[in-house]
């Protein structure tokens, strides 16, 4: 036996030494996609609206145009250009089975730009998703791919950098293995929250959640107040991390909850698939996010949350508190460089004071729906089809149809509330009324966002109803979009001889822009479309346009209800 364990020890020592040696050589070989000291403004797995952040955001000091270089040998496997999302993005496949992604670029290097532009002209589309062959654009480590920017749905100039496993396209945390970032700052725990998880449970009272202030004493987070509880309760925390002096608020890598030295919940954000990124809405306290913007991570698991980053879950992270017992709670929050912060406190089990009976006033109809089953609601006004796993929890679903002179083309259909998240789209059909035949193709759904603004949700008229898919609950009604987009020239004048290109602002009032096409002298020309700024831009192209003559430009913009606007102008270039 002694001999055997010694052998295991020896093998372990060898393999540890080997892996250290390997990571040391990797470190010297690591290449950053941009040069300079790395400020991180967004970390991997950070909680975002409806998703976990799939990469690392690298600071470019609020400037566009920093050189972006391939971090390893390989070839360009994908060129994705879109007015939203990643904007101008480049994907490089490497022989080690990894893919790196460089997004929100301002522009590509010359050979990549030429390749992309050729496809855009072939397809007559700004938006493309091209998959070059391995031999088309081979890449050496350090090759220029393009220049950092703010394209797509970016909130300011930065480089979004991702590392994925090529076969399944699952993003993984580039820190610490693929990015040199020195981080010695531990995560910050901002607050603690205790949730009552059934009607008979108690936690310092009978409110849905209690908020507790935490403070740091030496190296540990503690609380000042006593927690008395009974029955089923859950724990939540608000935590963040900073990587270095150049980083802004970032996310943590893992949270572990132990009760009396037993781990009952662990969330680790080191790898996930895009298909499960929306589980973030079940990980956080979604209702609190909607009402206050605060992102509390709930250390207990909904029955229909199947996120792969959840580990060591015991009893779904729920603590059943028994009177006269003491529960020693320890929460550990770690960042990607393994700096750990610890929050410790105790929960005392008590016999709760008897709760006064409250009678809830229910408006509308209520149905108990299971998140594990397909559900549908059919009545004279609407049909709602909810596939299984659309909700994270079983719920008493309320719905109501409201008649009002404000809503001419249908009733207002109230589907539960905005504070309950949906994991996937569900199908809604609302019966229409009073829509003149000529406007039926212009009918669509409208809803209210969290700030009570009316927003378009799409949908199509068919056989007396409008049907479509919705990704949030809330209030829905039918409206019409008959107004064409607006095209406002920015720099167009009769003599464009000294201009670099043509710029215009294209906006749409309701259903949103579906397509924009520009033609010079009858030929399709490439307009870049920056949707967040409603800006389109054509760069004069000597390869495709003859200089020193009169030209005619036509811009055609269509919205999602096919309302069309045309703009025509003659100019000299
Ligand atoms: Zn990003």
């Amino acid at each position: 036996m002694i001999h055997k364990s010694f052998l295991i020890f020896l093998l372990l020592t060898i393999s540890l030494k080997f892996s250290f040696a390997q990571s040391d050589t990797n470190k010297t070989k690591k290449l950053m996609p941009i040069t300079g000291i790395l400020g991180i403004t967004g970390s991997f797995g950070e909680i975002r609206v409806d998703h976990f952040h799939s990469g690392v955001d690298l600071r470019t000091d609020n400037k566009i145009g920093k050189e972006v270089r391939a971090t390893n040998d390989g070839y360009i496997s994908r060129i994705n250009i879109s007015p939203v999302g990643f904007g101008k993005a480049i994907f490089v496949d490497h022989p080690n089975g990894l893919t790196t992604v460089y997004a929100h670029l301002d522009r590509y290097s010359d050979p990549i730009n030429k390749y992309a532009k050729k496809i855009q002209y072939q397809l007559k589309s700004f938006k493309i998703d091209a998959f070059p062959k391995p031999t088309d654009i081979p890449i050496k480590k350090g090759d220029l791919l393009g220049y950092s920017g703010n394209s797509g749905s970016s909130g300011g100039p930065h480089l979004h950098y991702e590392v994925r496993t090529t076969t399944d396209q699952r993003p993984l945390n580039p820190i610490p293995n693929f990015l040199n970032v020195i981080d010695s700052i531990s995560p910050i725990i901002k607050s603690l929250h205790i949730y009552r998880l059934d009607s008979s449970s108690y936690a310092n009272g009978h409110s849905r959640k209690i908020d507790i202030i935490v403070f740091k004493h030496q190296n540990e987070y503690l609380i000042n107040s006593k927690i008395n509880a009974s029955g089923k309760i859950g724990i939540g925390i608000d935590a963040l991390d900073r990587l270095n002096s150049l980083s802004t608020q970032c996310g943590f890598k893992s949270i572990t909850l132990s009760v009396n030295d037993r781990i009952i919940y662990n969330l680790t954000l080191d790898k996930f698939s895009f298909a499960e990124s929306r589980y973030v809405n079940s990980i956080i306290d979604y209702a609190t996010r909607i009402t206050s913007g605060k992102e509390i991570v709930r250390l207990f698991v909904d029955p229909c949350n199947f996120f792969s980053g959840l580990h060591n879950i015991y009893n779904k992270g729920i603590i059943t508190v028994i009177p006269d017992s003491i529960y020693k709670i320890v929460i550990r929050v770690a960042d990607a460089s393994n700096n750990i912060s610890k929050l410790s406190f105790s929960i005392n089990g008590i016999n709760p004071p008897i709760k006064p009976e409250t009678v809830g006033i229910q408006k509308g109809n209520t149905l108990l729906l299971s998140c594990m089953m397909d559900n549908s609601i059919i009545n004279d006004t609407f049909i709602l089809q909810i596939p299984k796993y659309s909700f994270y929890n079983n719920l008493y679903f309320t719905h109501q149809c409201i008649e009002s002179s404000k809503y001419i083309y249908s009733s207002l259909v109230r589907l539960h509330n905005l504070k309950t998240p949906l994991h996937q789209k569900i199908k809604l059909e609302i019966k229409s009324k009073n829509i003149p035949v000529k406007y039926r193709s212009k009918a669509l759904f409208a809803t209210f966002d969290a700030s009570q603004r009316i927003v378009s949700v799409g949908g199509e008229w068919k056989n007396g109803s409008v049907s479509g898919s919705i990704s949030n609950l809330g209030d829905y009604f039918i409206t019409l979009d008959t107004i064409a987009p607006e095209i406002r020239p920015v720099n167009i004048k009769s003599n464009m001889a000294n201009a670099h290109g043509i710029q215009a602002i294209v906006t749409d009032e309701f259903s949103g822009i579906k397509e924009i096409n520009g033609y010079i002298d009858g030929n399709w020309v490439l307009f870049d479309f920056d949707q967040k700024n409603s800006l389109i831009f054509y760069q004069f192209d000597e390869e495709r346009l003859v200089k020193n003559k009169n030209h005619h430009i036509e811009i055609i913009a269509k919205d999602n209800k096919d309302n069309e606007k045309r703009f025509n102008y003659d100019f000299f270039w």
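Confidence is low (pLDDT under 50) at residues 1-28. The pocket of zinc ion is lined by residues 42, 53, 55, 57, 160 (CB under 6 Å).
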